[in-house]
Design a protein that fits this description.
By secondary structure, the chain is of the alpha/beta class. The protein folds into three domains: 60 residues, Beta Barrel (OB fold (Dihydrolipoamide Acetyltransferase, E2P)), CATH 2.40.50.140; 196 residues, Rossmann fold, CATH 3.40.50; 123 residues, OB fold (Dihydrolipoamide Acetyltransferase, E2P), CATH 2.40.50. The protein contains nine helices and 21 strands. The strands form four sheets. The protein has a seven-stranded mixed β-sheet with strand order 17-16-15-18-19-21-20, with helices on both faces. Helix 1 packs parallel to helix 9. The termini are far apart.
Length: 443
């Protein structure tokens, strides 16, 4: 049986927006179906143009706003609506964070049946120029003799044509056009699919992925460009291990960021996971210390510890800390960071935390508190086995409210914890991304 795509109506329709979806689109009803409308806000009446039609819902984009919400603002970026890097620039930042808190609350109360005892004030930061990690797609379209560089377009996988980016650190965000002109001038432009951006305390690193060897002339052009704008140049001919630094010569491969309040310095490689927003990261670490309140009597287990972002600040106050991460490479990085900061009461282990870890040496130790900072898939395997550790407090940092709510339900309904405090953190202003921190306690 063939499944034909439903025809898309050509004429815009007038709809009333009654809500905002988890991905930042306005919610309306049209012809007894839900319609998700990009660029529309609750309380507005808009003319919406269909973009896709499905059996149970339709998708559309705003053509013009008839009645405007008080929360609407003019997007700062001229590419908003085309570029998929941001979804909420038309909504005032103060309303964005309230929307994110509402999304989390709905997941917790309606889905997980978990009611927090206390909501923490949201953590917010500068809404523009904050992003210090990003991946820009690159594609040379031979038929059009055009080179594209940027994030994916809104609603599809095509690369958006942009001249600049308002959420990227301006040292890079204001140089997108120059970067495009540079790559377009290269002999090997067809072989460069992406550029990784990583920004440290002083250094801006550009990592050029290339699928074929670059000529000496191309490398010279890249070097001249990076020297001109004070970027560090890295090349990646194959996998992550192939990343190597070209310019400045005879300088360290690693970048660094600093938690000033704790006087801690972290070294990282350009493709390592680090938080994209260091202003929020500092606030997040401070809040974590306040909530978990480590003392000299505490032994803390930090699961999904990365390069030690939370482990090191906790080690400054706790008796000891054990960090566990999935790859030996990140464990080596975390160990180096602890050593460089003269912290001797901390150790790190490599372990796949999605598998049974009962026989691991670190899992047989006694702890007083646990920190969880998992990827988007959450920590279901961990929370299902949490009783083995017999702790009274768990601090959970999440980048996905759906998996946070799922895991919260397990901790509360199966293991007897309560969600004592929870709050959202605006790690990614103008996007639908929600970062959460919650403190779970046992009586």
């Amino acid at each position: 049986m063939s499944h034909r795509r439903k025809p898309i109506p050509q004429n815009p329709v007038e709809v009333e927006i009654t809500g905002l979806s988890h991905d930042g689109r306005g919610i309306a009803r049209q012809d007894n179906k839900v319609m998700f409308v990009f660029g529309a806000l609750p309380g507005e009446t808009v003319n919406a143009k269909f973009t896709r039609c499905h059996s149970r819902y339709s998708e559309a984009t705003t053509v013009d706003v008839i009645n405007q919400a008080s929360t609407r603002v003019v997007p700062k970026c001229e590419h908003f609506g085309l570029c998929g890097g941001c979804q909420l620039q038309h909504l005032a930042p103060s309303s964005q964070i309230l929307h994110k808190q509402k999304m989390l609350e709905e997941q917790l109360v309606n889905q997980a049946k978990v009611t927090p005892e206390e909501w923490l004030p949201p953590l917010v930061s500068t809404p523009f120029g904050y992003r210090q990690k990003a991946r820009l797609g690159v594609r040379f379209v031979e038929k059009k003799d055009a080179l594209l560089i940027g994030f994916r377009e809104q609603g599809n996988n095509k690369i958006a044509i942009i001249e600049g980016c308002e959420v990227l650190d301006p040292r890079v965000g204001s140089r997108i056009k120059e970067l495009r002109d540079l790559i377009n001038s290269l002999e090997g432009k067809m072989h460069i699919p992406q550029i990784e951006i990583a920004i440290g305390e002083e250094e801006v690193a550009l990592v050029f992925r290339h699928l074929a060897p670059l000529s000496e002339q191309d490398i010279a052009a890249l070097t001249t460009f990076c020297e001109r704008f004070h970027f560090s140049l890295y090349l990646q001919p194959q996998g992550v291990d192939s990343v190597h630094k070209i310019w400045p010569v005879n300088s360290s491969l690693a970048l660094r960021y600093v938690l000033k309040d704790q006087q801690l310095t972290y070294h990282f490689h350009p493709l390592d996971f680090t938080q994209v927003n260091q202003e929020i990261n500092q606030q997040m670490v401070n809040q974590a210390l306040t909530l978990l309140n480590p003392s000299s009597n505490d032994s803390i287990l930090d699961l999904f510890c990365g390069l030690g972002n939370f482990s090191l600040p906790f080690a400054q106050k706790a008796h000891d800390v054990v960090g566990v991460e999935g790859t030996a490479q990140m464990v080596a990085r975390a160990t180096e960071n602890a050593r460089n900061n003269q912290l001797t009461n901390i150790e790190f282990h490599a372990c796949d935390l999605s598998k049974d870890f009962a026989e691991q040496s670190w899992a047989k130790k006694q702890y007083t508190k646990i920190v969880l900072d998992p990827p988007r898939c959450g920590a279901e395997e961990i929370v299902n086995q949490i009783s083995r550790f017999n702790v009274k407090e768990i601090l959970y940092i999440s980048c996905n409210p759906a998996t946070f709510a799922r895991d919260a339900a397990i901790l509360v309904h199966q293991h007897g914890f309560s969600l004592a405090k929870v709050g959202v953190m605006d790690m990614f202003p103008h996007t639908a991304h929600v970062e959460t921190m919650g403190l779970f306690r046992k009586p």
